[in-house]
Amino acid sequence: MTEQSGLTAGAKCSGCGIALQMDAPELPGYLPAQALERTPLVCQRCFRIRNYNESSTVTVDQSEFLRLLSEVGTKDALVIHIVDLFDFQGSVISGLQRFVGNNPVILAVNKIDLLPKVTNWNKLRNWVQKEAKEIGLKTEEIILCSAKQNTGFERILEVVGEMRGNRDVYVVGATNVGKSTLINRLISDYSDLEEELTTSRYPGTTLDTVNIPLDDGHFIIDTPGIVYESRYTELVTKQDLAAIMPDKPLKPMVYQLNEGQTLFFGAMARFDYLEGGRQSFTCFINNGLKIHRTKLERADDLFADHAGVMLAPPTKEHLADLPEWTRHEFRVPRGSQYDLFISGLGWIKVNGDTGALAAIHLPKGVKVMMRPSLI
């Protein structure tokens, strides 16, 4: 036994076979202290699957996830790739196709409940299809869904039923995209865990996966959530995460700006409008995150004097933990409709057709890009 944890060195989960650990709940193999008396020992994720028919998310870094994903192409599998519509470019696995080979992919686009109700869903589906094609991802079907409102999941289950055949079902996605909710729906519809002996061992012994038995001898393969450090959501504290991740429909904020004006999104990001004449910009961000407008000439001093206080979140304490800011410049072509997208934070739609030159400042490494307008 180790003095620190009371856990035998090398102890493994009797459910999935992973090495047990007691230090990090978000990582595979986590065993709470109160579970040390259980016989046999099972990790928290297997315990919840076995006793509550529920899966909880664990995470791994990008390189480990890609190693895990490379095994999928060698199997006859159905892949469900779930992404976050609010952070589409940040949560989509751009290299998925080369790993899954010819296996069919269902693209489940979650969090559609965050968009305004007047959204044209056919146009949105076409937008997703074009963006997926742009990164080389072939999809058998694109399904718009909302885990929160439980919409679209019935269609996912229908498609899984139609396409599964003799395949196992792999569910892949980044962190915070709703993967666990989908896994739990699949478990409740396709798996009969009550017949599993409490001492039985799930066959998933590869690192970080759990193979959930289906009633026909096949499995749902619950993969860990991939951590993309280019998403703002991976950089902030849990407190600030709540401030930037919306949990209700967005209320777009429209700003009429002149050249030489700046918008601060708390102390998370800064938008400078440099050229293009007076025009409007629509901000799609969590409505709890305050936007502050100022003149470009005052922006540096304002940030230096008020970041972490008036410009917040994050607080000064947490601001110091973020990477140093970098500047990204974008020229929006005349007569086009584009968003300036910040992974994990939202996007700014350029509404005018006269073109624009703008700059975005934010912590180094956070993904920022110009894309065709989502709405």
UniProtKB/TrEMBL annotation:
PANTHER family cross-referenced by the UniProt entry: GENETIC INTERACTOR OF PROHIBITINS 3, MITOCHONDRIAL
Coiled-coil ranges per UniProt: none
SUPFAM superfamilies: P-loop containing nucleoside triphosphate hydrolases
Name of the protein in its database record: CP-type G domain-containing protein
Pfam family, one: YqeH-like_C
MF terms in GO: GTP binding
Ranges where the CP-type G domain occurs: 66-229
Organism (species): Paenibacillus nuruki
